[in-house]
Specification:
single chain; 11 helices; D-Amino Acid Oxidase, Chain A, domain 2; FAD/NAD(P)-binding domain; alpha+beta
């Protein structure tokens, strides 16, 4: 039996983001007796919600478990910039795994955002989902020459986008940077409403939502089982771990590490303070900041990441990080009002190669997991739901190997 780590939602994030519950979802219930299902999903954040929706659409009998309010852990801390561009440039990824592998990974990420948009439209989830371009700004040691090389690598991979020099960038968006890559195909959403809308659809199809705490997993036998703190057992054909960055010992991987990020949301801005097209904006530097807008005209601005896991250490930096974000926001958008309505911080999992850990847990054939999303949380969550759904049905594609939990560290 495998024991999960115990962590509360308050440890996953601190402060309050701008997302509020907007979609009714059935309350989680406790389990009165042992039960069975096809798949038990542990964790009812955005990954678990996408997983439950997809599995119920496949006709699976699903039990979805969370010890606290669904979506109010890491999901509520997400800035929900649904980008297909990942933390490592395609040229950096190619240096690790070869150009063809890097190109395939980027194309799968692009397709994931597109398919997520289609899903939200089909289900009519009111979550503020809007297609957006991205503006990838020169920053730090990454100047026009480096961005142009990255643009050429993307074009070779069949990915869309334009290299934009200073004058055009300033005229089109108002950003006083040396250059940028402007690309279509990304999106934004309200992550909490998206999560709750997916859960509502899954439960409408018969998924059972439990407000219970999982204390151990067994995925090594002829069937899988999750033991709850109440002593009840959920038996299943497979277990999916969708618990954010909180990984049980059996999923430990030398690629994975935990970091913390900080974010703020301004008061609603005057239209002239916002950039045209409300693109998703991020910087081409290791210590990058990123921003987007909300449907009511706020600017959500984040960054200042640190490799900190302990909640207390993260919270001690909240005030200093908020002020640092204020200065960086002013430097990028000098016309913006710097009054903040919300500020928050959260922990997230990331990997050395910028790719998630998705697939079967080695040595535990009925235990599947999805971790290490980095800056592409919801995009990789969608990708995980499709990959794990296929594995549960016994289907495996060649590209799944790029995200294998036991892939070797390329360093």
């Amino acid at each position: 039996m495998l024991d999960p780590q115990t962590i509360r939602h308050d440890d996953l994030r601190h402060g309050q983001g701008p997302w509020l519950p907007g979609i009714a979802r059935p309350p989680g219930r406790t389990l009165a007796a042992d039960t069975r299902c096809d798949v038990v999903v542990v964790g009812a954040g955005i990954t678990g919600a996408l997983m439950a929706e997809h599995l119920t659409a496949m006709g699976k009998d699903v039990v979805l478990i969370d010890r606290e309010r669904e979506g109010f852990g890491s999901t509520a801390a997400s800035t929900a910039m649904l980008q297909w561009e990942i933390d490592l440039q395609i040229s950096e990824l190619a240096a690790l795994y070869g150009f063809e592998a890097a190109a395939e990974i980027y194309r799968m990420s692009f397709k994931a955002v597109e398919q997520l948009g289609e899903l939200v439209g089909q289900l009519a989830i009111p979550c503020g989902f809007s297609p957006r371009p991205t503006v990838y700004l020169a920053a730090g040691e990454v100047g026009p020459r480096e961005l142009l090389a990255e643009h050429e690598a993307r074009r070779r991979a069949g990915l869309p986008g334009d290299f934009v020099e200073h004058a055009d960038l300033l005229g089109r968006f108002g950003f006083d940077r040396a250059a940028a890559i402007v690309s279509p195909g990304s999106a934004e959403a309200d992550p909490l409403s998206l999560c709750h809308g997916l859960i509502a659809m899954a439960t409408k199809r018969g998924a059972r939502l439990l407000r219970e705490e999982a204390v151990s997993y067994d995925g090594s036998g002829a069937t899988a089982a999750v033991t709850l703190k109440s002593g009840r057992v959920v038996e299943a054909g497979a277990i999916v771990l969708a618990t954010g960055y909180v990984m049980p010992d059996c999923v430990q991987d030398d690629l994975h590490r935990v970091a913390s990020s900080w974010a703020v949301a301004t008061v609603p801005q005057a239209p002239e303070a916002l950039w045209p097209g409300r693109a998703l904006v991020w910087e081409a530097s290791e210590d990058y900041c990123y921003c987007r807008t909300t449907t009511d005209g706020r600017i959500v601005f984040g960054g200042e990441d640190e490799e900190i896991e302990q909640p207390e250490a993260r919270e001690e930096l909240d005030e200093a990080k908020t002020e640092a974000l204020r200065r960086r926001l002013h430097a990028l958008l000098p016309k913006a009002r710097l009054d903040f309505s919300h500020s928050w911080s959260g922990a997230f999992g990331q990997t050395e190669d910028g790719l998630p850990l998705i697939g079967r847990v080695p040595g535990h054939p009925r235990l599947l997991a999805a971790y290490g999303y980095g800056g592409n949380g919801i995009t990789f969550s969608f990708l995980a739901s499709r990959m794990l759904g296929a594995l549960i049905e016994g289907r495996e594609e060649s590209w799944f190997r790029h995200f294998a939990i036991d892939r070797p560290n390329p360093a």
